[in-house]
Amino acid sequence: MSDTPHAHSPHLRIWHDGDLLTDPDQRRISAVDHGLVVGDGVFEAFKVTPAGPFTVRRHLERLTRSARLMGLPDPDHHQIREAIAVVIEGRTYELGRLRITWTGGVGPLGSGAAFGSPTLVVAVDAVQPAPPVSQIVTTPWLRNVRGAMTGVKTTSYGENVRGLAYAAERGGSEGIFVNTDGNLAEGTGTNVFCVFGGQIVTPPLTAGILDGITRQLVLEWNDVAERDLTLAEAQTADEVFITSSMRDVQAVDQWDAVSFSAPGPLTAEVQQRFAERSTADINP
Predict the structure, then answer these.
(1) Cα–Cα distance between 60 and 10 in angstroms, integer?
(2) Which of 65, 94, 126 is the last residue of a domain?
(3) Which of 33, 85, 92, 197 lies deepest, with the highest CB count within 10 Å?
(4) Are strands 224-226 and 199-202 parallel, antiparallel or unpaired?
(5) Looking at the predicted structure, is the pLDDT value of residue 3 above 80?
(6) For 100, what's the count of Cα atoms within 13 Å in the CB-facing half-sphere?
(7) Same domain, 120 and 177
(8) CB burial class (10 A; 0-12, 13-18, 19+) of residue 196?
(9) 65: CB partners within 8 A, 6+ apart
(10) What's 91's domain CATH number?
(11) Which residue intervals of 101-204 are DSSP H helices?
(12) Residue 132: how many CB atoms within 10 A of its CB?
């Protein structure tokens, strides 16, 4: 794939308004779409494997939950599944990233409610597998545990963009947020797990975090305790790993100035179990 700013990946395929596009410049979304003007939209992103898209049902269910919390109409799961089938048909890549975007449609130049038909875009592109080990950096900004957008996978992603850039400038691949209660929250696009003496611990949903799909599976397939952790306590862990739909279970060997053995034995066990079970069932 080219780094040229205007060169599109040959694997990029986009479904919009019933049409399949291979060039995003073929179609224009309204300049007053509320998703663009005020971030009035929600999205899901997940991997496409040789066996097909992974955990579609869970992602569509969360898309609907997010839409309802944003006051948007429910997305049509049948229509989205049809669009997914169209964009992934004939794929030649091993791993893809599929994104569903659902916005309020045409609206005012402000925060008033959108008044157009909702906008649905389903897109996929090839990606490289995430490395097995990562470095993470604590950001200087806080996650709000009681905000209107807390736990909503909204297209208003500016805070995460800034957090990820902050981490990248310091050699990390992920930025980690503490919350407004002073406890560990989550990454810009990941959930965080710590291992203490053989026990896996992760922040609860009440810490103001997103209910990650990979997080759900790790909790279902392993013995994990959910409780609040301060940053200082978290960084005394024996092992640390992060999870997301594209990273799966990724070991952490550096968190700020703290180093960890990675992957540690329990992290490796979680990684192996996740790989085996996710390969055996693409829609757990």
Answers:
(1) 27
(2) 126
(3) 33
(4) parallel
(5) no
(6) 30
(7) no
(8) middle
(9) none
(10) 3.30.470.10
(11) 158-169
(12) 16
Q: 59 near 130, Cβ under 8 Å? A: no
* Residue 247 placed within a domain: yes
Length of the chain as a residue count: 284
Is residue 87 helix, strand or coil?
A: helix
Query: Is residue 224 helix, strand or coil?
Result: strand
What residue numbers bound the domain in which 34 lies? 13-126
Considering the chain, what is the average pLDDT of its residues? 95
> pLDDT (tens digit, 9 = 90+) per residue, 155-170?
999 999 999 999 999 9
Token look-up 């409780």 returns: 227
137 and 97 assigned to the same domain: no
When pLDDT is cut at 50, 70 and 90, the band that residue 28 belongs to is confident
- Beta-carbon count within 10 A of 217 CB: 21
Helix (H) or strand (E) holding 259: strand 258-259
Residue with structure tokens 């097909």? 52
* Assigned token pair, 202: 């992760």
Place of tokens 């994104």: 99
Q: Does any domain span residue 3?
A: no
Q: What is the pLDDT of residue 7?
A: 64
Distance of CA 122 to the CA centre of its chain: 15
